[in-house]
């Protein structure tokens, strides 16, 4: 199946890569739903985890987006227990209730998410690399490990395009050679289309020379995913804002299931839909492990996001 890859970052207690994989076949349906939520919530501005301070319009929009994305990641439907998603629509009568939709009878949309953390935020990484180079190398590691975990001989992936959320904070444009051509050792069920392009323009749809509107929306969705997973794992930013913690509750159940191991996930509705891992360098060698919940000492306010 052909996919587009969307990447965002977070710099709270490490360097986090968030990689959203969207099947090209499903992309129009995903965009259509995200736009429906914007209409219902009457929120048209940029969405990002850092912008969520209270449970207002942006929170409602972000919550509905996240609900939908979690549903769109289901790989195995359970017809006895339909998965409900919040549409963002509210009926304002004397009871003022919210509208939900069941997605049990729909075909899987195939969205997948990779969360990868460089625990030491590049402190022990090669001095010969600039900051952008360190991001590119760790992205390669994140992409390779995640693709191998989420796909198989029975379920191939071909990546046709890559989207990075702006190049300015990297200090330069993304180096395609380092991202794709040096990604060695990919298994034969994971590959990039010949002449796979990289778009590293801004994800802010109200800026000049930003990416296409629909791609901006998917990059903003990636921002919500990485921020919510990070917060659910206890790595808080920006003063431990309650609204962000409430939003993160939506992915908490996924994390709990994931941490019970692959044997448990085999029977989950979210089998092979996401993965969570981290790395660090010790004695000049890469070490890999699952991301553990943050200790209390790591949950203090951190302003480096």
**H and E string:** EEHHEEEHEHEHHHEE
The coarse overall form would be globular
Main sheet characteristics = 7 strands, mixed
Based on secondary structure, the structural category is alpha/beta
**Tally of extended strands?**
9
Mean pLDDT, rounded to whole units? Answer: 86
Contiguous uncertain segments of 5+ residues: 301-305
Oligomeric state of shown chains: single chain
Task: Summarize this entry quickly.
The chain is α/β, with parallel strands linked by helices and 305 residues long.
Reconstruct the topology from this structure.
Layout: E1 2-10, E2 15-23, H1 27-41, H2 57-72, E3 84-91, E4 97-102, E5 112-118, H3 131-150, E6 157-164, H4 176-181, E7 190-199, H5 213-232, H6 242-258, H7 262-265, E8 274-282, E9 285-289
Parallel strand pairs: 1-6, 5-8, 6-7
Antiparallel strand pairs: 1-2, 2-5, 3-4, 8-9
Helix pairs in contact: 1-2, 2-6, 5-6
Description of the molecule:
Helices cover 32% and strands 23% of the residues. The protein starts with a strand and ends in a 16-residue tail after the last strand. The chain has 305 residues and is α/β, with parallel strands linked by helices.
Please give a handful of descriptors for the protein shown:
about 300 residues; alpha/beta; about 25% strand
């Amino acid at each position: 199946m052909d996919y587009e890859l969307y990447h965002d970052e977070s710099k709270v207690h490490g360097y986090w890569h968030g990689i959203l994989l969207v099947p090209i076949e499903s992309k129009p349906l995903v965009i259509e739903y995200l736009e429906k939520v914007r209409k219902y919530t009457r929120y048209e501005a940029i969405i990002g985890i850092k912008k969520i301070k209270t449970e207002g319009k942006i929170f409602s929009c972000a919550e509905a987006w996240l609900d939908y994305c979690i549903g769109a990641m289901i790989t195995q439907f359970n017809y006895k227990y339909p998965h409900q998603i919040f549409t963002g629509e509210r009926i304002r009568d004397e009871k003022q209730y919210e509208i939900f939709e069941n997605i049990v009878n729909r075909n899987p949309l195939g969205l997948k998410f990779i969360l990868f953390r460089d625990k030491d935020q590049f402190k022990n990484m090669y001095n010969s690399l600039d900051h952008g180079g360190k991001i590119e190398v760790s992205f390669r590691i994140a992409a390779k490990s995640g693709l191998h975990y989420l796909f198989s001989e029975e379920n191939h992936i071909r990546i046709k395009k890559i989207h990075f959320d702006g190049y300015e904070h990297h200090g330069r444009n993304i180096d395609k050679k380092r991202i794709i051509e040096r990604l060695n050792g990919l298994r034969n069920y994971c590959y990039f289309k010949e002449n796979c392009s990289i778009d590293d323009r801004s994800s802010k749809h109200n800026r000049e020379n930003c990416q296409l509107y629909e791609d901006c929306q998917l990059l903003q969705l990636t921002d919500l995913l990485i921020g919510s997973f990070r917060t659910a794992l206890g790595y808080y930013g920006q003063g431990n804002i309650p609204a962000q913690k409430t939003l993160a509750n939506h992915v908490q159940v996924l994390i709990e299931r994931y941490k019970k191991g692959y044997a448990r996930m085999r029977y989950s509705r979210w089998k092979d839909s996401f993965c969570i891992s981290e790395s660090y360098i010790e004695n000049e060698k890469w070490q890999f492990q699952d991301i553990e919940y943050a200790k209390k000492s790591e949950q203090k306010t951190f302003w480096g996001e």
